[in-house]
Amino acid sequence: MRASTAAATAVALGTTALLLAPTAVPAATAAAAADNRPRISGHRGAAGYAPENTLPSFDAADALGIDWVETDVQRTRDGELILLHDRDLRRTTDVESVFPSRADHPVGDFTAAELARLDAGSWMGARFAGTRIPTLARTLDRLDRNGQSLLLEIKQPDLHPGIEDDILGVLGRKGWLDGGHVDHRLIVMSFGTNAVRTIHRKRPELKTSVLVSARPTAAALRGYATYADQVNPDYRRVSGDFVAAVHALKGAHGKPLETIPWVINTASAARTVAGWGADGMTSDLPDVAARALD
């Protein structure tokens, strides 16, 4: 999602995210299901506590008791699917040192072997030095090991033609298209509506989401509902009446359309979004959001 980085989180909270003391939230997802609270998903893992979209970030979410995580997938020049949010590598890697003449190049200009040379952790602290950009395949293995579920965002699909087939291929090879994963542990989403439509057409059993940065019109919502199960907005752009309008429609699988606003990093925002009746929320600091709803 278009997001707040760890630094932006620090500004919003008036403190440094890395200095916050994360507190485990035992069985957070199960508890939320029990009393119909919104399901809290870790944004890019637990991006307030570990380098976003890396295995340590997913492990950090797991240590906090967060069962669902969100991440971003892109494709390298030689066809490997990797996790990265930005169009280029400057913010979250040492690409300016390793490939100074190519630092502003898009991810798709690099091979998987070239990306494997980059440090994707030191920017967030010395203890994360040497952290690498993970492949989607390796990430799925880690999430299975942790027992975590996945909100998988197809990032900038227009820059990666055909990436939908590549993603479905990896999901299939890793066993993530079986009934257990499809029914309970996987949602595929994108700001690119064509990509969401493509996933729905090719694998209609998959749950899908459309991401929006501005409040969509009523007509747009009705259109999304024909091929998506969720419409997930920037929480700052919507309110309770938006949630009600979403819930009034049936999604692609005939159930009420859902909404998971993003990115909620304060207790007050978490309580506000929960008060709207949202189905979930994503957070860089998922333990903060979870404790706010206890």
Describe this structure in words.
- With 294 residues, the protein is of the alpha/beta class.
- Helices cover 35% and strands 14% of the residues.
- Strands 1, 2, 3, 4, 5, 6, 7 and 8 form an 8-stranded mixed sheet that branches.
- Helix 3 (55-63) packs parallel to helix 6 (136-146) and helix 12 packs across helix 13 (286-293).
- It is globular, with a radius of gyration of 18 Å.
- Mean pLDDT is 91; it is low at 2-20 and 29-34.
Question: In brief, what are we looking at here?
Answer:
This protein is 35% helix and 14% strand.
Features:
single chain, 294 residues, alpha/beta, 8-stranded mixed β-sheet, 13 helices, globular, disordered N terminus
Write the layout of secondary structure elements.
Blueprint lengths: L5 H8 L14 H8 L3 E5 L11 H9 L4 E8 L5 E3 L11 H4 L13 H4 L20 H11 L2 E6 L8 H11 L5 H6 L1 E5 L2 H10 L4 E6 L5 H7 L5 E4 L6 H8 L19 H10 L3 E4 L2 H8 L1
Helix pairs in contact: 3-6, 12-13
Order of helices and strands: HHEHEEHHHEHHEHEHEHHEH
Average of the residue pLDDT scores: 91
Query: Low-confidence runs (pLDDT<50, min 5 residues)?
Result: 2-20, 29-34
- Number of DSSP-assigned strands: 8
Biggest pleated sheet: 8 strands, mixed
Structural class by secondary-structure content: alpha/beta
Report strand %: 5-15%
Distance between the termini: 26 Å
Radius of gyration: 18 Å
Helix content: 25-40%
Number of helices: 13
Q: What overall geometry do the principal axes of the alpha carbons give?
A: globular
